[in-house]
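Students often ask why inverse folding is considered easier than folding. One informal answer: many sequences map to the same fold, so there is more than one right answer. In these notes we will look at a single instance of the problem. The structure comes first.
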């Protein structure tokens, strides 16, 4: 599949899913959601990136995002939260492992003045959710730590990756608030969760593909170099 067609497929799936969210069409919404991660996998594979740990861990993260999106649709409702936490937690771990070599380019090393913003956000999320999380408290704490770590490391991919990490933080924070904070009410919260989730996946994949894509040489470089060499030697073809 052509990379542009894969991106187009992702865009169509995203628009359809968000439209079905607004129309409160659960069956159509669930069906369209399962196409999101596979279309991004198609984007990565069609980009023909050189094999690398980051590329492979990105693909693994997308696979487990697909698991988190799909399996709850076919299993009993009481298992949904367990499958979601497991699938997306493993996806976050894959992102962290893949992005770890880029830590010297990220907020972990550079622009450290932004670190407190992420840490305060994580602590505020935990402070709001832990009192009512019950038996999910350990999972909430562990997931919050992984989420902040992934978002920080994603900044190593540049501003696009940083936006992707922030979008993931917003999406997962909305999920946590919606499930564990009794006073939290947001109209169309499902739409907001999925809009930020879709943006996060798309931005992270776009940033990673951009980072891994080999630089292209302009075909005009060699002739210019040849003419320069001719002029330097004083040899003329006339």
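Output (designed amino acids):
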């Amino acid at each position: 599949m052509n990379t542009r067609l894969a991106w187009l497929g992702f865009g169509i799936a995203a628009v359809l899913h968000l439209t079905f969210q607004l129309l409160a069409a659960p069956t159509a919404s669930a069906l369209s959601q399962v196409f999101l991660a596979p279309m991004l996998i198609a984007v990565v594979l069609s980009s023909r990136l050189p094999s690398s740990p980051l590329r492979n861990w990105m693909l693994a993260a997308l696979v487990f995002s697909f698991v988190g999106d799909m399996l709850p649709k076919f299993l009993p409702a009481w298992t949904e939260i367990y499958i979601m936490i497991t699938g997306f937690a493993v996806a976050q771990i894959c992102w962290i492992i893949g992005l770890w070599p880029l830590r010297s380019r990220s907020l972990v090393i550079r622009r450290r003045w932004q670190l407190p913003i992420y840490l305060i956000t994580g602590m505020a999320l935990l402070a709001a959710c832990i009192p009512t999380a019950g038996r999910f408290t350990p999972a909430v704490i562990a997931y919050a730590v992984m989420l902040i770590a992934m978002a920080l490391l994603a900044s190593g991919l540049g501003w696009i990756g940083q936006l992707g990490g922030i979008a993931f933080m917003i999406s997962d924070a909305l999920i946590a608030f919606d499930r564990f904070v009794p006073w939290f009410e947001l109209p169309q919260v499902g739409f907001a969760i999925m809009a930020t989730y879709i943006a996060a996946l798309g931005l992270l994949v776009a940033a990673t593909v951009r980072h891994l894509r080999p630089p292209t040489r302009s075909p005009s470089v060699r002739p210019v170099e040849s003419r320069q060499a001719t002029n330097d030697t004083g040899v003329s073809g006339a």
